[in-house]
């Protein structure tokens, strides 16, 4: 969450993120304790057929009152200047973490992965902020997010099984 926002702006962004996430019945949403900033606001468990899978991903939420700090590239793509210090906290978390940018002006949501190779390579740690591309959060993009996470876990399982066979 953004320390510069009024508390109710961050709270509204969290509620809005929960609204987007809770549209799926295969996700269990768990709010994280904010005593220490570990980079994750929400931890999500993925279920298959109502059963926990052990597959989790983290969510970092950022709130903006208006789109004035956002550069629109297309209808579904924006860029946003994000604090590099936050990117540093998240990049070593050992499971997928997605950044959700919630815009209060129109209740829109945008997302990007933080600890994936393509973004890691793009982050310049000498800067205070980094321009990060975000895609619009829709039902379709939420489905793609969950599919990507499942595929990420499948690749990890496949790699571990291959190592055991050697």
Question: What do you see in this structure?
Answer:
This protein has 4 helices and 8 strands; from the N terminus they run αβββββαββαβα. With 166 residues, the protein is of the alpha+beta class. An 8-stranded mixed sheet has the order 1-2-3-6-7-8-5-4. The longest helix is centred in the last third of the chain and has 27 residues, at 139-165.
Secondary structure: elements and pairs:
Blueprint: H1 7-21, E1 27-31, E2 42-48, E3 51-64, E4 70-74, E5 77-83, H2 84-90, E6 97-103, E7 108-113, H3 117-122, E8 129-136, H4 139-165
Concise structural overview:
Helix content is 33%, strand content 36%. The chain has 166 residues and is of the alpha+beta class.
Keywords:
single chain; 166 residues; alpha+beta; Trna Endonuclease, Chain: A, domain 1; 8-stranded mixed sheet; 4 helices; 8 strands; 36% strand; globular
Biggest sheet architecture: 8 strands, mixed
Q: Any guess at the CATH architecture? A: 3-Layer(aba) Sandwich
Distance between the termini: 45 Å
Assembly type: single chain
What fold name goes in the CATH topology slot? Trna Endonuclease, Chain: A, domain 1
User: What would CATH call the class?
Assistant: Alpha Beta
> What's the Cα radius of gyration?
16 Å
What's the pLDDT, averaged over the residues?
A: 82
Counting helices, strands and paired strands, the structural category is: alpha+beta
Q: Helical percent range?
A: 25-40%
Task: Report the order of strands and helices.
Answer: HEEEEEHEEHEH
Tell me the domain tally. 1
Tell me the number of strands: 8
How would the global form be characterised?
globular
Beta content: 35-45%
Spatial order of the strands in the main sheet?
Answer: 1-2-3-6-7-8-5-4
Protein name: DUF4365
Domain DUF4365: 24-121
Pfam families: DUF4365 (PF14280)
InterPro entries: DUF4365
């Amino acid at each position: 969450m953004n320390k510069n926002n009024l508390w109710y702006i961050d709270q509204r962004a969290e509620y809005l993120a929960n609204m987007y996430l809770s549209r799926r019945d295969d996700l269990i949403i768990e709010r994280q304790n904010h005593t220490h900033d570990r980079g994750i606001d929400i931890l999500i468990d993925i279920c298959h057929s109502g059963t926990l899978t052990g597959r989790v991903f983290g969510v970092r939420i950022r709130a903006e009152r208006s789109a004035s700090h956002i550069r629109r590239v297309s209808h579904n793509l924006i860029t946003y200047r994000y604090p590099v210090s936050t990117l540093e906290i998240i990049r070593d978390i050992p499971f997928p973490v997605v950044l959700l940018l919630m815009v209060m002006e129109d209740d829109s949501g945008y997302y990007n992965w933080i600890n994936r190779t393509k973004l890691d390579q793009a982050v310049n740690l000498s800067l205070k902020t980094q321009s990060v591309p975000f895609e619009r959060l829709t039902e379709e993009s939420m489905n793609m997010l969950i599919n990507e996470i499942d595929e990420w876990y499948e690749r990890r399982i496949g790699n571990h099984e291959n190592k055991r066979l050697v």
